[in-house]
Specification:
The complex is a heterodimer. Chain A is mainly α. Chain A has 11 helices and no strands. In chain A, helix 3 packs parallel to helix 6, helix 3 crosses helix 8 and helix 3 packs across helix 10. By secondary structure, chain B is mainly alpha-helical. Classes of the chains: A mainly alpha, B mainly alpha. Chains A and B meet through helix 1, helix 3, helix 4, helix 5 and helix 6 of A and helix 2, helix 3, helix 5, helix 6 and helix 7 of B.
Chain lengths: 267, 312
């Protein structure tokens, strides 16, 4: 069979990729438009003014700060819980192992609205007031799976003989963890952590149910989407959000790719 | 193994380590207790409280929840207005899934079979970036595109095809007063947002198809089309089904896309949102949210019967 791709396939794949990327690039153009009342295309003129305007907006900064705080803490919780789960599931076979994997995946497999409304009604029943921590609780729940997936994949590649060798050489469990296991899973955890961070930073559906009066950056965006008031500022914020998610994703890609050369592959 | 024990004064840490080595079950328990408590108690617990409420009903006069077991709320789902919402959502999910599969196939196939080296990395990032970039930003981009004064209308007008667009918008179901308030708009945004979820599993499945099979098919005289139909597609089916699980389930539960871009007719997600919010009818909201769970349960069961999981 021909090793070169047929033209039709090339064009279809190219068009598909263009379909995926052009809409996002369009926002970059809009961030510089001089038009502020409508989404007029082509833009009547270009200006850098809106970046300054957005910079001055305290509500944007507050939303950004809250989002970063929520994402950091949820990621930390997800890292601990996800790694523990992954280690348990991949290193031993035990009763209910399949159930645990299902349990981890469930929060992301079920529609976000169900997770959101379930948590909300539970908070209501338990008389827990909505706060920063209720947002974190929701986010950490669906971030666990991202860390778990990355960690499980790495644990599978990590050869058991390495750990046995470490023990044979006199290291105790903690030393083995610190000097053998951790260096081997570190990049997977970093990648998982970054993806969890990106997931939390962007989450809106569960957050609408678990946040009280506070607004994270996605909630701020959602309000602007439903009732546009500050179109130019929204354009700038959208561009910043894109840039902030692009970097961790590319970094995570390179981290997991290098991880393919992790020790003890010939298991 | 327990050479540490032999050292003259084992530290507390070392003793703990030895204990752990000798009691793997306890270690497992310690490792699992936190995640299981979090997911099993917090998450499943909340889910259960929600589902239980779907068996309660709302008192029509006081608007308060009656804590008596009843199936009345489920009956309400079959009122024509609510049934319409469910069927509309199902139809949309099915269409979005099919369109995503058609769009995803060439990208996934090219990435799996022809992209090499740098191109492979570029394709991967080219799929991962839209997958992970902000959901709201993606919807926002389409709000810009579909706006009346936006780029799509401009494009149609500059190409003197605005008549064609108007004819399309005048069509009964798919049309509307503008693209951004039509089902077509909702459909486009759904496809756009979920497409990467279809590409990735499809690509993974296509990568496992050995090229010798395709060569054999060609050697035996099959045309490219026949190879696609009788060799490639059946082998890619597990990936296609895996991807469709995502696109289908995500469309079923979404309430933000149809709220921002689309006609005012409701989808399941919006119905859940409205019932628990403005309407204050938690039992009906809970019953509505059982619908996607049941549908996905059936879907997964069918996929399993079709052998999609064995092949994965």
């Amino acid at each position: 069979m021909h090793s070169k791709a047929p033209w039709g396939l090339k064009i279809a794949a190219g068009l598909g990729l263009a379909f995926l990327h052009l809409p996002i690039l369009l926002i970059f153009v809009y961030a510089f438009t001089t038009e502020e009342k409508s989404y007029q295309w082509p833009p009547p003129g270009f200006t850098l003014k809106w970046f300054g305007v957005a910079w001055e907006r305290s509500d944007v900064w507050e939303a950004l700060a809250l989002s970063l705080k929520v994402a950091s803490i949820s990621t930390l919780i997800a890292l601990v819980l996800g790694t523990l789960c992954a280690a348990a599931v991949s290193r031993t076979r035990f009763f209910g192992r399949e159930t645990i994997s299902l349990l981890v995946i469930l929060p992301i497999a079920l529609p976000g609205i169900i997770t959101g409304i379930a948590l909300r009604s539970a908070f209501n029943l338990a008389d827990i007031p909505f706060s920063f921590w209720t947002i974190v609780l929701g986010h950490a729940t669906f971030c666990i799976v991202v860390v778990y997936n990355n960690a499980v994949a790495r644990f599978r590649r990590l050869s058991g003989s390495l750990i046995e060798a470490s023990m044979d050489l006199g290291a105790n469990s903690f030393q083995t963890f610190r000097y053998v296991i951790l260096p081997n899973i570190a990049t997977a955890l970093l990648a998982g952590g970054m993806l969890a961070f990106a997931l939390s930073f962007d989450e809106v559906i569960v957050t609408t149910f678990t946040a009280g009066q506070q607004s994270t950056l996605p909630i701020w965006m959602l309000e602007e989407l439903v009732r546009p008031r500050q179109r130019p500022v929204t354009n700038v914020v959208a561009v910043l959000v894109v840039l902030m998610t692009v970097l961790p994703i590319i970094a995570a890609y390179y981290l997991t790719r290098d991880g393919e050369h992790s020790a003890g592959q010939g298991k | 193994m327990n050479s540490v024990v032999a050292s003259t004064s084992p530290s507390r840490l070392a003793r703990l380590s030895d204990y752990a080595w000798r009691h793997p079950k306890q270690v497992l328990l310690v490792m699992l207790i936190l995640p299981v408590l979090w997911l099993g108690v917090v998450y499943l617990g909340s889910l259960a409280t929600l589902l239980i409420q779907s068996f309660f009903s709302i008192d029509e006069f006081s608007g308060l929840i009656k804590h008596e077991w009843t199936l009345k709320t489920y009956q309400e789902l079959f009122v024509p207005a609510n049934l319409d919402i469910i069927l509309r959502t199902l139809a949309m999910a099915a269409l979005v899934t099919m369109a995503s599969a058609i769009l995803a196939f060439p990208i996934a196939y090219y990435a799996a079979r022809y992209a090499k080296g740098v191109w492979k990395a570029l394709f991967y990032i080219g799929i991962m970036l839209p997958l992970w970039s902000s959901y709201l930003v993606k919807i926002y981009a389409w709000k810009l595109i579909l706006a009346r004064e936006g780029i799509l209308n401009w494009l149609f007008t500059s190409l003197h095809l605005d008549g064609l667009l108007n004819v399309y918008l005048a069509l009964p179901v798919v049309g509307g007063s503008s693209l951004s308030v039509s089902y077509t708009g909702t459909f486009l945004v759904f496809v756009y947002v979920w497409l990467p979820f279809m590409i990735l599993p499809l690509q993974a499945a296509l990568e496992r198809v050995p090229s010798s099979l395709l060569e054999a098919s060609a050697d035996l005289g099959a045309s490219a089309w026949q190879t696609l139909r009788y060799v490639l597609l059946p082998l890619a089916l597990p990936g296609l089904i895996a991807g469709s699980i995502f696109t289908f389930s995500l469309t079923l539960g979404d309430y933000i896309i149809p709220q921002i871009i689309g006609s005012s007719r409701l989808f399941i997600g919006q119905a859940v949102y409205m019932q628990q919010g403005t309407a204050g009818n938690i039992p009906l909201a809970a019953a509505f949210s059982v619908v996607p769970i049941v549908i996905m349960g059936i879907y997964l069961w069918l996929a399993k019967r079709a052998g999609a999981f064995n092949a994965l």
